[in-house]
Design goal:
Belongs to the RuvA family. GO terms for molecular function: ATP binding; four-way junction DNA binding; four-way junction helicase activity. One of its GO terms (biological process) is DNA repair. This protein is of the alpha+beta class. It has three domains: 60 residues, Beta Barrel (OB fold (Dihydrolipoamide Acetyltransferase, E2P)), CATH 2.40.50.140; 70 residues, Orthogonal Bundle (DNA polymerase, domain 1), CATH 1.10.150; 49 residues, Ubiquitin-associated (UBA) domain (Helicase, Ruva Protein, domain 3). 48% of the residues lie in helices and 19% in strands. The protein contains ten helices and five strands. The protein has a five-stranded mixed beta barrel. A hairpin with a 2-residue loop joins strand 1 and strand 2. The protein is elongated and about 65 Å long.
Amino acid sequence: MIGKLTGRLDGVHEGGCVLDVNGVGYLLACSRKTLDALSAREGVQKVLVETHLRQDAITLYGFADAAEREAFLALIEVKTVGPQKALLVLSGLRPEELARAIAAKERKRLAEVKGLGAATANRIIDEPAMQKWAVGRATPEADGSGAVGIALPAPEADDATADAVSALVNLGWKRPEAQAAVNRARARLGAEAPLEGLIRDSLKALAR
């Protein structure tokens, strides 16, 4: 199996490129973002590779960095999402953007990826393994103030707020971060906001 190639870019075409390794040209299938990254570099460069064997073909998939390869491997585990659709996703979204979209369940954003479609986007977002992958990579960031995990004054206790915090903690967020996000969501959405709305709004804020 080939896991990495080091050589010079010899040509780029729709859906892939040729990497010249000591005079041997390797045909790699790549995302648009990997092709752009490789084209912007000069000289000898390293390309990470996943080798897929089928009865009638051997296909090499190339990646400019480890994050994209990890995203590719996660995507192809989703039912009906094969390597080509995974490359479509990664051509439209960087791995960190994909993680944020999945964590916040931004179905429309994922469905807008060229060539993907709503059904496949929903399948990716609803796949538990993809949610787990996304939460580990949608790193909590500051809310614009430069501080991370600073809790706001807690609103009056209610079941929806407590359940929303618990849901975020179960998804892997630390309780202070989860509480702060839910407090902000409650302040934005109002006292009558339902549990689902609180969770969705909080995840969007945490994934930014």
